[in-house]
Structure formats: C-alpha cells, structure tokens
Please model this.
Amino acid sequence: MPETRVVIVGAGIGGLSAAVNLAAEGFAVTVVEKFDKPGGKMREVDAGGAAIDAGPTVFTMREVFEAIFEKASASLSDYLTVRPAEIIARHAWEDGSTLDLFADEERSFHAIADFAGVENALGYRAFCREAAEIYRILDHSFIRAQKPSLPKLIWRVGPLAFSDLWRMNPYETFWNAVCRHMSDPRLRQLFARYSTYCGASPFASPATLMLVAHVEQQGVWLVEGGMHRIARALESLGRRLGVVYRYGAEVAEVTAEFGRASGVRLASGEHIAADAVVLNADPSPVAAGRLGREAASATRRVPPRRRSLSALTLAFQAEASGLPLARHTVFFPAAPYNLEFDAIFRQRKLPPAPTVYLCAQDRDGRGDRSGDGAERFLTVVNAPALLNGSGLSLAEIEECETKTFRLMETCGLTLRPLPGALVRTAPQDFETLLPGTGGAIYGRASHGWMASFQRQGTRSTMPGLYFAGGSVHPGPGIPMAALSGALASEALLADLGLPRLLHRMATPGGMSMRSAQTIATD
Model:
C-alpha cells in the first residue's frame, strides 16, 4: 500500500507541528517554505552583529510541546533547554510606580495589595477565579476541539453545564470585566492588556479573553539560545522522522483534481503531488487568490477593517541604566487608555501615547544578567494594520521611536542604543513578509462575542486542504499555532478514516496560554 503523501506549505509553528504529528503517523511529509529557515514570524534579526528575537518572545504552554515530542517517542528536553521565569512581567508607570506579577499567584496578590490596597488585591483574586472558570469551560470544548459553531459548543459542554456558558459573560467587554474587579486605573491598564495578546482592543473584545490571565499563571519559560530554537527543535525532530524540508521554495498555487487538493505548484513551475495539503498560512491572502483559484474558493477573506493589531518593533543593542529590568517589562503612559485603541482601530494611526513593551533578552527569569556592557532589546508598540495598502511614513515611525524612548525614560529607564545597531519593522514590513495580510500579525481581531466562531477552522471547504497557524482556530500565539497543527493532523486522519490524534496530546495539570505580549503568532 503506497504511503500517504502530505505537503505542508509554510514552516511556521503550525506547519512544523503538523509535520511532526503526521510523520509520526507514518505519512510521507514534505514542508515547503519560501524563506531560508523555519519559524515563520518567530524570526531573528541581526542588529549590529547580535541575533535578536524579533517575533514572539514568550514561551508558554510547555506541555503542548512536550506532548508533541512524546508522541514522536522523543523528549523536549533532548532538543530544547528551558528555564522557568520567576517574574512574569514588570510594569512601570509615568508616576514612578512599578509592579511585578509573579508565576506564584500568592506573591502577585501580596504585591498588588502593597501597590493598590487590599480591596484591589481581593479583586485580582476574584478576577483570577473567574478567569480559571472560563478556561475550565472552554479548554476541551473549544480550545482543543475542532472549530465549533455555537450550537456545537453548547452540545459539547452538555445541558448540565449550559448555564456555565452564560456565566462567562460573553456579551461583556474585556474592559468592563477588568473594571468590575479592580478600581485602580493602573491595574485596569495592566490587566486589560491581555486582550492585545490576541491582537484586539479591550474595549471591543469579549470578557472570555480573561482566560489568558489564568493560563499565564501556569508558567512562563525562557528558551536557551532564543525563541528561534523552538522552531529548530521541531525541525530537527521532523528530520529524524523523515520529514523533507525544502527552503527557498515559494508556492504559487494549490492544485486540485476532481475537486480535491492534489498538491502544490512552485513558483519555479515544479509540481509536488500530494494526497493532502496543509496551509500554514493566513486565510485572507489565500482567499484573495495568492495560492491560486482553487484554494481561494476554499476559504473566506477577512475584511480589512476586521484585521487585528499590527506592530512597530525596534530591535537594537543598548546600554541600560536606571530602572531595574525584568526579562519582560511594560511601560504605561498616563494618558487615558482608550485613546490608544481609538487611534489604532478607528483613526488607523499610531497612538498618541503608546504603551511600550520591552524584552531584555540577556536577562534571566529574575531580571539578573551576567556581564556588563550593551544588552539586546526588542520594543513593541501596537500599530494599525494596513487598510488601503499605505503604510507608516518615516516621520511617523521616527516620532513614535522618540515617544517610545521618552516614555521609558520618564518611567526611570535610560537606554543608550549603539550606533547603527537598530532594526525597525513597521506594518508595511510585516505585509512584505506576509503578503496580503495588511501586516495584521494575529489574523482576525477578536472583537465581539462571535469573533472566535468566525475564525477559519482547520478544515477548508475543499477536501484534502487544511489550515494551520495562529490566524486560524484556536487562535493566536505560539502554543495555539502548535495546537492548530495538531488539529489539522487530527482532521486529516479522521477524514482518511484513521484514529484520532489530538487526545494523545492531553496532559495532566492543565495548560497555560499567553499569545505573547509581543507578536504572538505562528
């Protein structure tokens, strides 16, 4: 009996995960990738001779990756060295106040009590309980399930748990949910920030995104050698299983025979035949015809105004002084928080007073570092995705850079970048990297209670064609992209009449999810 051949388009985390899962089932898997290395948006840039993570910077849901390796009779620790972070993130405001959140919820409770009073600390605890309940309800019924409709979700949770769905307050905004628990305006900024991990505004996204705050408490990990090592680890495991990786090979179209996916045609003209195709890609450019007419008819395009956040990132080396840094530090302006999102989603411009995320990549999980001199940094400011093809002007970018460094200095941190060691990435650059997305790095914005049901599922309307990645179900973030690869594998196996795969990935003790403060994508 001939092997089942699968072609995976794109070596992002979703594609790499699907490749390992399918190869472990005995399929003949070929991964084709237009870039010269794996990782997708999990990329490195060279800034003055230093390799700096310029995509996702936070590793969570370690259990998902351990399960992928275990399924392939391997151990994650043989391929990747990770260490737990004691401090999840440090937060700083223009008034000079600072607050650390810890992996230990009790430590966070006492830190908040000292920072904003016992009443707000009790509100934080209630917020965490509500977030944990939301996660409990959605874990198996939604996150690790094939993309459900609302009726299917209700059926999955069962009649006895139906009332649980309404206790999640699906019609309440994330912002209102945060305000219901905490009165301190600084805490409201901090916790409302979780919605941006899904590329959304807290003023338009549903309260169900509170689950991100719960799952973050389950563990944040630091990857020795940088985040790109995660992609390399999956690639190495895939090679051991016989996966063929073809880099520098751009796909021009998905081919079909008798209405079923039959392979891909490269830009060079070469045709690679397959029994199934997995697209590790944003559905919008596919629907717009970038992979041919056959694939375009198999999915739907996200309207430009429904696109998620983009970003303006700066990767650089600098000497730091003043405010002690954690690995992850967030700087908040004194301006009303809604102005940031009104500018991005309504006015389609950079915020007048942006919040700034800073990743100090030479700091450990306590914020310590060895050695002196310059450090490697990445800053991220939320930005609008492109609406009509035009990007930010150089003047707008430079003005935002000035505001970025000024805010950090007002909060107590002085950075002195090394000359010639700064790399910018603006929304138009993300569009160049991923044509047809408008630079939206999380796919569809999670706005409104129905947004999660509107994401592309792993199955397309064309038999034999599947989707994976952070722009499809179950959503943005490295771990979610890995789960999407498993879901695509499960769907393919089921459609071929083979045993289920995903249930083998369930692990005890729950799962953690944080779509990354920075570009949490596939």
Remarks:
- Confidence is low (pLDDT under 50) at residues 500-522.
